[in-house]
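user: can you give me the structure for this one chain? tokens are fine.
assistant: on it. calling the predictor now.
[tool input]
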Amino acid sequence: MNNKTPKNQHPLVFEDIPQHLSNEEVEAIRAKYQRYQRGYDGEDKLADVLSNEDYIGCCKELTEGVVELAGVKPDDHRECFEACVGRCVSSKVLGMRTWSKWSGYRRFAELVKDAAAYTRETHMIYLPYAPVLVAAIAVRTLRSFEPRPGDEITPLITDLKMFDRLQGIIKC
């Protein structure tokens, strides 16, 4: 990787929500998953009160919501959908108190940084694979966990329009 590529050069136009949805439509989808949002001031973890079966069911429901945001039907991409549910379960999307304490955050951050570097270097779009991206969207968008000031990956997520490009990743 050539470290001389300026960080401010980027071939993309930036947006933060899916292009096919208005802000109101995104908020309507988020409202359907309000029970998974931070209503407990980060003092407990939602996962602590769920059986394993219920936890998996909740992860499946969150994955359905993320896929709905992307404009994709789970049955049209069943294998990818199941992998995304598995990643939501294994990365404990319901078992954290803050965005940066999510157990999938470190791996997601590595993939985001790598994708940004490859995109800057090659001027071709690189993105994390669907299961990791779906889990991150479940945490950030549906569960409404916002980053702390200074979070270094949030600008990269926005710059690369990662959440907006999920549909294409799922369909690959």
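assistant: here you go. The CA atoms of residues 44 and 141 lie 19 Å apart. The chain has one domain: 23-32+46-171.
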